Amino acid sequence: MEPADVLAGLDPEQREVAEAVRGPVCVLAGAGTGKTRAITHRIAHAVRSGAVDAQGVLAVTFTTRAAGELRQRLRELGTPGVQARTFHAAALRQLTYFWPRVIGGDPPAVIESKLPLLIGACRQIGRDLERSELRDVASEIEWAKVTQTGPEDYVEAARKAHRTPPIPAEEVVRLYDAYEIIRRERHLVDFETILELTAALMTEHREVATQIRQQYRYFVVDEYQDVNPLQKLLLDTWLGGRDDLCVVGDPNQTIYSFTGATPRYLTNFPVEHPDAAVIKLVRDYRSTPQVVSLANRVLSAARTPHRLALIAQRPDGPEPVFSEYDDETAEAEGVARAVRRLADDGVPLREIAVLFRVNAQSEAYEQAFARAAVPYLVRGADRFFERPEVRQAVVLLRGAARSAGADDELAPTVHHILAGVGLTPEAPGGGKAREKWESLKALADLAEDMAAEGADLAGFVAELERRASEQHAPPVEGVTLASLHAAKGLEWDAVFLVGVTDGMLPIVYAETPDQIEEERRLLYVGVTRARVHLELSWALARSPGGRRSRRPSRFLDGLTGRPAAKSRPSSAAPGQRRTAAGPVSCRVCAKTLATAAEQKLGRCATCPVDYDEALLENLKTWRTAVAKEAKVPAYVVFTDVTLQAIAERVPTSEQDLLAIAGVGRVKLERYGDAVLGLCRAAGYGTESA
């Protein structure tokens, strides 16, 4: 392939990226604008034209799958020698190589999860935490480490970042400190420490830095809006003052700020590199003009919009649909019917997705699709190649490949092997059996595709092993159910965005202006996943017969053709405390209550009160389950003080529950039915609002 051939077929902006073979270069690439095509052709053009050596290129991205896609495209462009890795994979490779040479001994082992070490840390400090709380503490430690915050600085840093730790910040510090001591004593590294140690090796050992910088002279970083301070530190250490760097990203798709990611490295790139070439990709090849128009309008109301309006390149399609339902059950059933209609019209089920804000919303759609006999898969569950049936099939296929004869045909052999582990001619009705069948059918379909290209069994097994290493699963025939975060980087012919209400999108615990804007970008990401068909829906009540008090998301104001809500609940400014309208008296002794906790309880902390201990425990168990499903700290659902107040007052109606401090309209709508149900189950009244 000649250099000119690499440039063929690129649009003017993509070609500008490809021809900018030396850095610094900043590519602002909107959703669906072909950024991967642009940067792979840039690398290939730079190598084929002799501007750089393939062995000197390091392309960095955030997921194993994305790195695998980069390598695959570069191989197709005739540049197989380029290294394309995640930050962690590249750093671990360097750390493992240099550790024995400059430190001595075996390099530290990598831990996949912080939880086992945190359990040990809890024992050391005499603290007993639930598993959901441990996960939340692990997230806090990860945030602290990627933002380069040590235990001694955590309290102040968390306060400035408006973080709400799952346990008192001082206890997070104690666990963080104990965790780090245990990790070092056991000669272990977590994913953050891999980056820290690699940067430290280069900083403290000049020969290590020299060798790595001689190896890699030309850097490309994808999804640059998701870089965190620790990754930026490692990248700067790799560069060593050089500026042969190309970064690619979209500030409008910044949706991981809660993990420490920040778009400022992308938006400030021209400030950091005044001579940088800045190129915008705005031609959207993914979505119809109707979908693109809605995406642009979602962002047009942003508080600080980044000017990257998309320009659709596809032919016209149907207008996005906005649907309102009486309750969540009706919404799920309506979506299932719409999916069935699309399937009857020829849209493959694997090209349809239902996207929601939190994973707990998945259950209603799983039930609705099961009733409608629509196969589905839940993204974010077991990875394809880690599913038991897939692992078993790959082991059997690997064994068959070793003993295969020259006359063994690929497709019949694979079908015979897969039939032995559960692949039947007809698909089961649903549930786990259907999920297993879909996994095996995906392997069989891949075998047939490769057989048509002339592959043999050994080649098929090699392809499976490559895909497993890159987490590149074959398509499964079923509707995808996924959270908006899990959907980033993917696309489908038809997308249903469900549960688009205030309190869910934006989520109820998004309070600061920056958090609200990130929720808006999350909706934008969801909209831009759709190629042709797009439906946004919401339910006015949680359950059939429930109070219809929900409102469509404020982000849809002016977009649906319906009148905007007259008023919206406002959040206090960061650090601003909401105050009561007047003094609150103790319901036991009538004294004025001084503290917020006493005002929530409605009594003095020292006043005696009877309450149902079993009900309080049931409320806490329910809260833990809800928080786990929503992947939020338990106190975000209700604080301990609020649960205590509920157990003491035992509300029997929505009005009673709303009278308890800490239970606002949004939480009443989301959790009211469940809380009142627990109170009724404990034998306290049957009144309903």
UniProtKB/TrEMBL annotation:
It comes from Planobispora longispora. The keyword Cell membrane does not apply. Residues 562-574 have a biased composition (Low complexity). It catalyses: Couples ATP hydrolysis with the unwinding of duplex DNA by translocating in the 3'-5' direction; ATP + H2O = ADP + phosphate + H(+). Coiled coil: none annotated. CDD domains: DEXQc_UvrD, SF1_C_UvrD. Belongs to the helicase family. UvrD subfamily. This is DNA 3'-5' helicase. ATP binds at A29, G30, A31, G32, T33, G34, K35, T36. SMART domains: HRDC. InterPro entries: DExx_box_DNA_helicase_dom_sf, DNA_helicase_UvrD-like_C, DNA_helicase_UvrD/REP, HRDC-like_sf, HRDC_dom, HRDC_dom_sf, P-loop_NTPase, UvrD-like_ATP-bd. GO terms for biological process: recombinational repair. Residues 543-578 are annotated as: Disordered. The keyword Nucleotide-binding applies. GO terms for cellular component: cytosol; DNA helicase complex. Residues 289-598 form the UvrD-like helicase C-terminal domain. It is an enzyme of class 5 (isomerase). PANTHER family: ATP-DEPENDENT DNA HELICASE UVRD2, UVRD / RECB / PCRA DNA HELICASE FAMILY MEMBER. It holds the Pfam family UvrD-helicase. Residues 8-288 form the UvrD-like helicase ATP-binding domain. Its EC number is 5.6.2.4.
